[in-house]
Write a structure and sequence with these properties.
It is a single chain. The protein is α/β, with parallel strands linked by helices. The protein is 45% helix and 17% strand. It has 15 helices and 14 strands. The protein has a seven-stranded mixed β-sheet, sandwiched between helices. Helix 13 (286-308) packs parallel to helix 15. The chain is globular and about 55 Å long. Bound molecules: pyridoxal-5'-phosphate (PLP).
């Protein structure tokens, strides 16, 4: 056991030790942290749906009618009416033939990628893609090639110079989770056509939030038809839990037959499914459009104010607004100072981001108020100046 303690001590010395903070009450704009009310600026509950009355009501009704567990993997006895209803709704929302629900985004990516590619195939992956994509790629045993972040000429060279016996899979985050910038989906779609590749987009941070009707980054970029594998999650903008993949009937049937995280895992419970269904209905309604507009207003206010104060927001184009710091220690000190002032913002360090690019990752919610955000920017400016970051 001393060995484990040693390893932990090394992490502490490197400023990379992590621990969890307990939030009291729901994931709202303001939360109780260690008994104190703070402004939550690091939740992915972008539209504020995590404690929305419509989702809560749907979950409660589903629990009363269907109980609390699905009891098994979907292929054994765990497919319930609500799984089907949610998949039909998701396919309609995404405009695809079919959809399949996974237990989480992590489970989806580690299931989908090995189901689609294996030995003899090649994966082309943006260097800043989410860890679950990396892990899915490793599990697949396909050749894994990372291209520099959003560098389309580098990707073209790699596509042209790599001999591929089998399939090519291009995979990207729609919104990069730690940088808040958008994938160049129009160019990716053109390259996918040119090289006969499959294109997979992970829209964990775009689902419900981006595009005129909330269908995500592919809608925003006008390439919905070009994305073969549209993966997204329901624990972020949709305020619930789980993930989905939307695409052709053949894709979905293949995943039902091959995706191990789907086959060998107890499926999502009724309360979660019903909340997700209510969330899709909500984001696909005028009320959803209002929430997206409010989120966009909050984001613009916050990001513009940070720029005015001299911070580097690392090319953010969405509700994810990083503040570049650099090294781990000042990043965590920045976060601690803000918490002392009543603002909860997480510092992000390796291995989540490359060494030397530590940052505060601020995330906006539709339910933040203008005055809350103005106070946050003031506190960030004060702490940032004290630490010599701006
Ligand atoms: C959060 C996230 C995931 C994982 O989704 P979970 O449902 O939280 O497991 C996958 N991909 C990206 C890009 C994410 O940000």
């Amino acid at each position: 056991m001393n060995e484990l303690r040693e390893e932990l001590n090394v992490l502490r010395q490197q400023g990379l030790f992590r621990s969890m903070r307990v939030i009291g009450g729901p994931q709202a704009g303001r939360v109780i942290l260690d008994g104190r009310e703070v402004l939550l600026l690091c939740s992915n509950n972008y539209l504020g749906l995590a404690d929305h009355p419509a989702l809560k009501e749907a979950a409660i009704r589903a629990v009363e009618r269907y109980g609390v567990s699905s009891g098994a993997s979907r292929l054994v006895s765990g497919t319930m009416e609500l799984h089907e209803a949610l998949e039909v709704r998701l396919a309609a929302f995404k405009g695809t033939e079919s959809a399949l629900v996974f237990n989480s985004g992590y489970a989806a990516n580690t299931g989908i990628i090995p189901a689609l590619v294996g030995k003899g195939d090649v994966i082309f992956s943006d260097r800043l893609n989410h860890a679950s994509i990396v892990d899915g790629a490793l599990l697949s045993r396909a050749k894994y090639i990372r291209y520099p972040h959003k560098d389309m000429s580098a990707l073209r060279r790699l596509l042209a110079s790599t001999d591929v016996a089998g399939r090519r899979l291009i995979v990207t985050d729609g919104v990069f989770s730690m940088d808040g910038d958008l994938a160049p989906l129009t160019e990716l779609a053109a390259l996918k056509r040119e090289y006969g590749a499959l294109l997979m987009v992970d829209d964990a941070h775009g689902t419900g939030v981006l595009g005129p009707t909330g269908r995500g980054s592919a809608e925003l970029c006008g390439v919905v038809e070009e994305v073969d594998v549209q993966m997204g999650t329901m624990g972020k903008g949709l305020g619930s839990c789980g993930a989905y993949v939307a695409g052709s009937r053949n894709l979905i049937e293949l995943l039902v037959n091959k995706a191990r995280s789907f086959i060998f895992s107890t499926s999502l419970p009724p309360g979660v499914l019903a909340a997700s269904l209510a969330a899709v209905d909500l984001v696909d309604s005028p009320a959803g459009a209002d929430l997206r507009r409010q989120l966009a207003r909050n984001t613009a206010l916050f990001r513009d104010s940070l720029h005015d104060a001299g911070f580097n927001t690392m090319g953010s184009e969405t509700q994810i607004v990083p503040i570049f710091v650099g090294e781990a220690e000042p990043t965590m000190e920045f976060s601690r100072r803000l918490l002392a002032e009543g603002f909860f913002v997480q510092g992000i360090r390796p291995p989540t981001v490359p060494a030397g690019s530590c940052r505060l990752r601020c995330t906006l919610m539709a339910t933040h108020t203008e005055s809350q955000l103005e106070r946050a920017v003031t506190a960030i400016g004060k702490a940032g100046r004290a630490l010599g970051i701006t």
